[in-house]
Design brief:
The complex is a heterodimer. Chain A is mainly α. Chain A has one domain. Chain A is about 80% helix and about 0% strand. Chain A contains 12 helices and 1 strand, in the order αααααααααααβα. Chain A is globular. The mean pLDDT of chain A is about 90. Chain B is of the alpha/beta class. Helix content of chain B is about 45%, strand content about 15%. In chain B, the strands form 5 sheets. In chain B, strands 7-6-8-9-20-19-16-13 form an 8-stranded mixed beta sheet, with helices on both faces. A 4-stranded mixed beta sheet of chain B has the order 3-2-4-5, covered by helices on one side. Chain B starts with a helix and ends with a helix. Classes of the chains: A mainly alpha, B alpha/beta. Chains A and B meet through helix 2, helix 3, helix 7, helix 8 and helix 9 of A and helix 4, helix 5, strand 1, helix 7 and helix 17 of B. Strand 1 of chain A pairs antiparallel with strand 1 of chain B, so a sheet runs across the interface.
């Protein structure tokens, strides 16, 4: 456990030692704020829960994108710079490497998600928001962050090029998002399977409306677990490929 | 050692099977040859690896021995497929449970065989040209594949369970779609099994929105069964339930079907969803309750249930409302036997604003009807040409009617912004009684409206032991406008609170058979006219409560959950402040903080 925390701390410190961490968070918050004013508050909507729902909807896209982009460098960069060997030779398991790396980017995205709390404050002040609605929306965002950073970690473990990892991650992410639309043209029983695999429409939408489904929690936890397991298996291929 | 034939055959068999199932499927002639080819390829793959293993020795034999179980697993999975595939003659006579179990085993076996096999073959390929094979490498790749396969199987099972036993926690106080207490009560009291079928295509937003609503209702009673169907995938059920297109909700008790059309487009369905709870109540009533008959007396200038020229005093809305509660509306005049006996199939009799006298024999028939346990809804009207001379009927009910039009200086509806508005009364004074149970729960925000109403009083010396409860009263400060100027005349008129509606329970007949009748009487026929019913939720609720009480049914109610949300109130200047503060302020602050920290670090480093 301490090794996982150590790796995560090292990664996080690297983010904030340079200006990159601050620039990334500031840029993400700026984009989130612009989306909030342009889409959630715009378009003539004025009911509190409707505006909050729209805010969570757009924020989920930002969180997903941030998750993929921030995790694409985790292992790819180490591999490209040859420092992955150092980690391999350290007395830590592949699981610890993967979990430590993932945890760092997950916490970073969580920081962005938590900092965005000031945006729905406007709805709290000028309208009425139930704390439960806020809680469920933010829980959904954190689950999205966990799943997308795990997908990013998996893709990052597959290549030594950050860009390739980023593109791969985006493709997997978009595939999961578009499952919802693919399900409409598929025939049974595949349609049900595809609809269930849909990243946003099936599982995230209820969070935006203030409802928590246990199936959504299981789904996001499953995507996170399988992606991290996949990343661990990819790292282990060096021993037998 | 490089032999790509077995893994290639294995992969080819999977591809052929996939094409046969997904591109063609049951009913296509190409499916069987493709399945046979797939089975042949799988058998050939197993045979090729088996023969190579038999011929090998030493390290090679041990390596191949590791691979053989995976090929054998794939082969067995194909055997199971031949058994459980849709339309397979091998599965005839087996139960559905056995088929489902074999399908699950097929997928599990295929997963547990394929993933280790692919990773082991990849590992084997990487050893091509090596002086000696490393069994450890092969073993590790097999383990990695097996752990991936087992984890996938676990995750798939968990998600299957989570999807089928989903729990929903709604953390909001304002819910845009939830069953009202009345709908839940109706479902709880279902006396026969009802199936609600949701016909929607896969991955549909409208279905996602309404499914929790119906799941919540299904949890209330075991009599309510919920099924989610796609018209394209279930044409037989769609035909039986007369569903023409997806986006339809059907209620069925096996014989009777009632449907609600919502459509599949979420933006278009939104307005329909707001009325879903009320619509469902109406449809549930139609399916679950036997048809009832409401008679409306005619021939004395009563209000019409089919008004001409959109008369605001007509009863079209009342008639429509009764239809949703599964009432059939019929006229009752001399032709239908009003002067002799109220028809035996009458569930309820309405007398709405008679403008001319009702003869004695007609009133006698009504009196006998209500004394023998009938239900009467009597709406009187002060604006009549001739006195309907209803005294015998009113005496039986223990009431007397005062036709002086009531007025109030402030507690009235603004209609013409003139003094005439004073007679358009609004009141939220309700007595707690079974006939106003939901109305009284509504709190002070719910008003009932009465346009040019008279008033009711209890008869001092009533003919019967009628139990009279005045359920709706006017606001304090109302007066009966005797001189017709709608201004309070202190000398001749008295201010106070007047009785606008009464619920009357008659005692059981003396012979002890049956129960006493019930009547709801109001001093204004406009209270249920189109003009008022279309705008006043209070009057609609009063009608629903009264009908429920008259029928002595707990199930019947028209209480509808209404969408409520708090609007965001903000000015343009505030918007600007929030925009710059939120969109630019915090990001700039974070950036500045980062710059300051970096500068500090540089200073301390130097």
């Amino acid at each position: 456990m301490s090794s996982i925390v150590l790796i995560a701390k090292r990664e996080l410190r690297a983010h904030f030692k340079s200006l990159i961490g601050y620039v990334v968070i500031a840029a993400l918050l700026l984009l989130d704020g612009l989306m909030f004013h342009a889409y959630a508050l715009g378009d003539g909507k004025n009911l509190s829960s409707e505006v909050l729902r729209e805010f969570f909807y757009y924020s989920s896209g930002m969180t997903g994108a941030a998750g993929i982009l921030l995790s694409m460098r985790l292992l790819a960069e180490e591999r490209r710079e040859g420092t992955l060997v150092l980690l391999y030779t350290a007395p830590i398991s592949d699981w610890q490497i993967v979990l430590g790396k993932w945890l760092s980017s997950f916490l970073f995205v969580c920081l962005f998600v938590v900092l965005s709390l000031y945006l729905p404050l406007m709805i709290v002040i000028h309208g009425s928001v139930h704390p439960g609605h806020l809680f469920s929306g933010y829980l959904g965002l954190i689950l999205v962050a966990a799943a997308t950073t795990a997908i990013g970690t998996l893709c990052s473990s597959m290549t030594s090029h950050q860009l390739v990892a980023g593109i791969l991650g985006a493709v997997v992410f978009l595939l999961l998002v578009t499952m919802w639309f693919t399900a409409r043209i598929a025939s049974p029983p595949l349609d049900e399977l595809l609809a269930y695999s849909a990243f946003f429409d099936k599982h995230f939408q209820p969070f935006t409306r203030g409802a928590i489904h246990t199936r959504a929690i299981v789904y996001y936890a499953s995507v996170t677990f399988l992606s991290l397991l996949g990343a661990r298996v990819v790292l282990s291929t060096r021993r037998w490929r | 050692m490089r032999n790509l034939v077995p893994p290639s055959l294995y992969i080819a068999s999977l591809v052929l099977l996939l094409i046969g199932e997904r591109m063609f499927g049951p009913g296509y002639s190409a499916r069987l040859p493709l399945a046979l080819a797939a089975g042949g390829a799988m058998t050939a793959a197993l045979a090729a690896r088996g023969m190579r293993w038999r011929a090998a020795s030493g390290e090679t034999r041990r390596v191949l021995a590791r691979l053989l179980p995976s090929y054998l697993g794939g082969f067995l999975a194909f055997g199971l497929y031949a058994f459980c595939a849709e339309g397979s003659p091998l599965s005839e006579g087996f139960s559905d449970e056995a088929l489902v179990l074999s399908k699950i085993t097929f997928f599990g076996l295929l997963l547990l065989s394929t993933l280790p096999l692919l990773l082991m073959e990849t590992s084997l390929l990487s050893m091509y040209g090596a002086r000696r094979l490393e069994t450890r490498r092969l073993f590790e790749s097999g383990q990695a594949g097996l752990s991936l396969a087992l984890a996938s199987a676990l995750v798939i099972s968990l998600n299957y369970l989570a999807n089928h036993h989903d729990s929903r926690y709604d953390l909001r106080t304002l819910k845009d779609l939830q069953p009202s207490a009345a709908t839940s009560e109706m479902v709880r009291n279902l006396s026969k099994p009802i199936t609600i079928s949701l016909f929607f295509p896969p991955a549909n937003e409208v279905e996602e929105m309404i499914a929790p609503y119906f799941e919540e209702l299904a949890a209330v009673s075991k009599q309510l069964k919920l099924e989610q169907l796609d018209k394209a995938a279930n044409p037989k059920q769609a035909r039986e339930l007369r569903v023409r297109k997806n986006g339809t909700v059907v209620l069925s008790d096996g014989e009777n079907h009632e449907s609600i059309s919502l459509g599949t487009d979420s933006s278009r369905a939104r307005s329909k969803l707001k009325k879903l709870d009320g619509d469902l109540q109406g449809k549930l009533n139609k399916v679950t309750r036997s048809q009832r008959i409401a008679y409306f007396t005619v021939g004395h200038g009563e209000r019409s249930t089919a008004p001409k020229d959109k008369d605001p005093g007509g009863l079209k809305s009342l008639k429509e409302g009764l239809k949703t509660l599964n009432y059939k509306v019929k006229n009752l005049g001399v032709k239908q036997g009003l002067s002799e006996q109220i028809p035996e199939d009458a569930t309820l009799v309405f007398v709405v604003g008679p403008k001319g006298p009702m003869i004695e024999s007609e009133q006698d028939a009504l009196i006998r009807y209500v004394r023998d346990g009938g239900a009467l809804f009597l709406l009187l009207d002060p604006e009549v040409d001739k006195d309907p001379e209803l005294d015998p009927l009113l005496q039986t009910l223990g009431l007397q009617y005062d036709s002086g039009v009531l007025a109030h200086e402030t507690k009235h509806v603004t209609r013409d912004r003139a003094i005439s508005d004073r007679s358009f009364l609004a009141t939220n004074r309700f007595t707690t009684h079974a006939s106003t149970s939901n109305l009284a729960k509504g709190g002070p925000r719910i008003f009932t409206l009465f346009d040019e109403s008279g008033s009711l009083n209890k008869l001092e010396k009533a003919e019967t032991d009628a139990e009279v409860t005045f359920t709706v009263r006017s606001a304090a400060g109302t007066w009966a406008d005797l001189d017709g100027n709608l201004s309070y005349d202190k000398a001749a008129e008295t201010k106070g609170s007047f009785n606008l509606a009464a619920s009357v329970q008659l005692p059981a007949p003396e012979d002890g058979e049956g129960v006493g009748g019930r009547a709801v009487v109001t001093a204004d026929a406009d209270a249920l006219a189109d003009l008022i019913l279309s705008v006043s939720m209070g009057n609609r609720q009063w009608l629903a409560d009264s009908l429920r009480w008259l029928e002595d049914e707990v199930k019947l109610s028209a209480q509808v959950a209404e969408l409520e949300d708090v609007a965001l109130v903000h000015t343009r200047d505030e918007d600007k402040a929030w925009f710059y503060g939120t969109s630019l302020g915090l990001p700039l602050l974070i950036l500045s903080w980062g710059l300051a920290l970096r500068a500090r670090r540089r200073r301390s480093a130097s």
